[in-house]
Amino acid sequence: MGDLADGSHQRTLTGHAVWPTAVWLGPDSRRAVSAGSDAEIRVWDVDSGECAVFPHPGSWVSSVCLSADGRLVLAAGHHQGRTLWLLDADTGDFVRAFEDVRDSRALKDPGDRSGEVLTARFTSDGRFAVSGEDDGRIRIWEMATGRCVRTLVRHTDEVYGIALTPDDRLLLSSSLDGTLQLWELDW
Predict the structure, then answer these.
(1) What's the pLDDT score for residue 113?
(2) Fewest Cβ atoms nearer than 10 Å: which of 77, 90, 97, 184?
(3) What is the reported pTM?
(4) How far is CA 80 from CA 22, 28, 53, 166, 185, in A?
C-alpha cells in the first residue's frame, strides 16, 4: 500500500503461496479480501497486515468483495458445483450459495459450463449482488434469498468487469466482446 500524496509505499501484504487472482479493498479501507490460485480466500486487516485464511473447496476463485459492513465475502468461482457464494468474513463459514445459474438437469450436455460467474459485486446497501457471467449475461441477485431477480442481456461474450455508482443507479460492465455497456438500474 502507498500514500497517493507522495507515492510512498506503506505496506506489503504477503501470505498467498502463489499469485492472488482477485482482490478487494473494503469501503472503509480497514479490511481487504483476496483469493489466490492456492485455493485460499484471505481476509486482511490492512493496518496490521494480519489475515485470516479460509481454504475453499473449489478449484478456482475469479472474484471476491466485501459487504459494506465488512461482515460478508461475496465470491465467484467454483465452490462444490456452485459459482457464486457467501462466506462469513470473520469465521470463513459458508453462509449461502446463490441459486445455480447452471441447472445441470436442464442441460442437454451435463458438462456444459455456461453460466459460470466470473465477477460479482454487492450493491451499496448490501441488499443485492450483481454478477457477470461467461455467457455474457449480467444477473442481479437478492441477498436475502439467493434468488436471481433480474437478468440483463447485451454482451455477447464473457463479462469480467462490473462497477456500480455509489447510489447504485448506474452499472458499467465490460466484456471480452470488446464493449463496455452502461445500464441504468430502476430499483
Answers:
(1) 46
(2) 184
(3) 0.86
(4) 19, 31, 19, 33, 32
